[in-house]
Each structure stands twice: as structure tokens, then as C-alpha cells.
């Protein structure tokens, strides 16, 4: 497998990246029309952490982390390393030594469709990580691949420079050219949810706030008393 290392790709503006970090993955995905989510198999190794950054993408051979070494050189302040392989792989391609090098360069975390190891060390050093698996299985450094090319994880295409947002609920990718607009839509959605939250605290029901009683009626859902439904007195 040959490959290419692309240097200096365009990236989303860090002010938009940092603005998106104020919102959760669910909110941002909903703001983009329920799109951009990586699958639920990509899980955090820590809890209570949310990060956003610009993607440095890696396409590796299964069981081989050579291209992660190559990608470290391409990483800088505000980036998130995003790794996948040419076919399914749960080996521990990423660990504490990579995190040490990346943290030195200002990288905010890693998202990988493969396995990860040294999870306790990563938590201790405060390096955020999301992965498909946790595995101690080691790797080799023998096969070429690519850095900063479009990759796909769980059907989501990720381009270098796209925004990656990750928290306890999962990971979402925001295309670079949509970052600023998604900030505005996320803000509007959060304001709408704040108003709904206040209404629920005051006792309003979702059935009434969302006009769902008419929906139930149109679907033929009826209200019956217990006695009507069972023929028994309660």
C-alpha cells in the first residue's frame, strides 16, 4: 500500500472550533439536521470531557501504526488526530507515547476507529481519547498509508481541517465550510431548549408544548379509562 502525506491543508477557523466546543455533540448534530455523527461504537476512555479541534486524518494498514508516526509531524495547536484503517482493526494502534508527542504539539485529543491502549496513562496525563476498542495488542511499522486525505469512519467522511467535536455522547464531524453556520444554528437550538426546559420545570407537558395531542388523535390513539379498557373497577 503506497500513500501520500499532504501538508498544510486548509482548516476551520479556531474561533468557530472553540465556539462549537460550548455545545454538546447531540446539539451540534441536531443543528446540522441530525447528520455528522460517528457510530455509537466510538466511545470515550474518560468521562466528563468535551473537546473540539481540527482534524488531522490518518489512513493506516490494519495492525500498523507507521502513518500515525508520520502524522505527528503534521499536527499542531488545536488539532485532533483522527485515525482509521483500510479494513476493520481493533489492535492498540495508539498509546501513551503518541499522546506525549501530540500533547507537546498542542493537539487536543485523538479519535480512532481502531483500538487504543495505555488508557490509564492517557487519563492521568489528561489526553482525551475516543476509540472503537481498548486493546493491548501491539502493532508493526511496515506499511505505507496516507495523512491528511479524506477518510471515512462509520459512513461519515472526514476531510482534513474539518471540525471534530467529541464528548461523553460520542463524536460528530462538522465540515470545515459549515463551521460558522453550525455555530449560529447550535446557539439558536440551545436557546430553544433552554425555553423548553424552563417550561417543563413549570409543569408544562411535552404533549402540549409540541402539539402532540393532535398527533396522537390523527394516529388513532385513544384515551380509555382503566375500567373501559379492562372491564374491571380499579
Could you describe the 3D structure shown?
With 234 residues, the chain is an alpha/beta fold. 32% of the residues lie in helices and 24% in strands. It has 9 helices and 11 strands. It has helices at 14-20, 25-31, 66-72, 96-104, 119-125, 179-201, 206-209, 212-218, 226-230; strands at residues 43-44, 51-60, 79-85, 92-94, 109-116, 128-134, 146-147, 151-153, 156-158, 163-167, 170-174. Strands 1, 2, 3, 4, 5, 6, 7, 10 and 11 form a 9-stranded mixed sheet that branches. The chain has a two-stranded antiparallel sheet with strand order 8-9. Helix 1 runs parallel beside helix 6 and helix 2 (25-31) crosses helix 6. The longest helix has 23 residues, at 179-201. The radius of gyration is 22 Å and the shape is elongated. The N and C termini lie far apart (72 Å). The model has no long low-confidence stretch (mean pLDDT 97).
Radius of gyration: 22 Å
Order of helices and strands: HHEEHEEHEHEEEEEEHHHH
The helix fraction, in percent, is 25-40%
Strand content: 15-25%
Ends distance: 72 Å
Mind summarizing the main beta sheet? 9 strands, mixed
Helix run count: 9
Q: Would you tell me the overall average pLDDT?
A: 97
SSE class: alpha/beta
Regions with little confidence, pLDDT below 50 for 5+ residues:
none
Number of strands: 11
General shape = elongated
Amino acid at each position: 500500500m503506497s500513500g501520500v502525506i499532504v501538508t498544510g491543508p486548509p482548516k476551520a477557523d479556531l474561533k468557530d472550533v472553540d465556539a462549537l466546543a460550548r455545545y454538546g455533540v447531540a446539539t451540534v448534530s441536531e443543528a446540522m439536521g441530525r447528520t455528522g455523527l460517528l457510530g455509537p461504537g466510538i466511545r470515550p476512555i474518560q468521562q466528563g470531557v468535551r473537546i473540539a479541534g481540527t482534524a488531522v486524518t490518518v489512513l493506516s494498514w490494519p495492525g500498523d501504526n507507521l502513518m500515525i508516526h508520520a502524522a505527528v509531524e503534521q499536527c499542531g495547536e488545536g488539532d485532533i488526530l483522527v485515525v482509521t484503517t483500510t479494513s476493520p482493526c481493533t489492535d492498540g494502534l495508539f498509546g501513551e507515547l503518541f499522546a506525549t508527542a501530540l500533547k507537546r504539539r498542542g493537539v487536543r485529543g485523538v479519535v480512532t476507529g481502531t483500538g487504543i491502549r495505555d488508557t490509564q496513562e492517557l487519563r492521568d496525563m489528561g489526553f482525551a481519547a475516543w476509540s472503537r476498542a481498548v486493546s493491548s495488542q501491539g502493532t508493526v511499522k511496515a506499511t505505507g498509508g496516507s495523512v491528511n486525505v479524506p477518510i471515512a469512519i462509520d459512513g461519515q467522511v472526514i476531510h482534513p481541517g474539518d471540525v471534530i467535536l467529541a464528548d461523553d455522547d460520542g463524536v460528530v464531524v462538522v465540515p470545515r465550510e459549515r463551521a460558522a453556520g453550525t455555530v449560529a444554528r447550535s446557539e439558536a437550538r440551545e436557546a430553544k431548549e433552554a425555553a423548553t426546559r424552563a417550561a417543563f420545570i413549570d409543569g408544562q407537558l411535552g404533549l402540549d408544548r409540541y402539539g402532540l395531542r393532535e398527533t396522537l388523535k390523527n394516529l388513532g390513539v385513544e384515551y380509555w379509562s382503566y375500567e373501559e379498557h379492562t372491564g374491571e373497577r380499579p
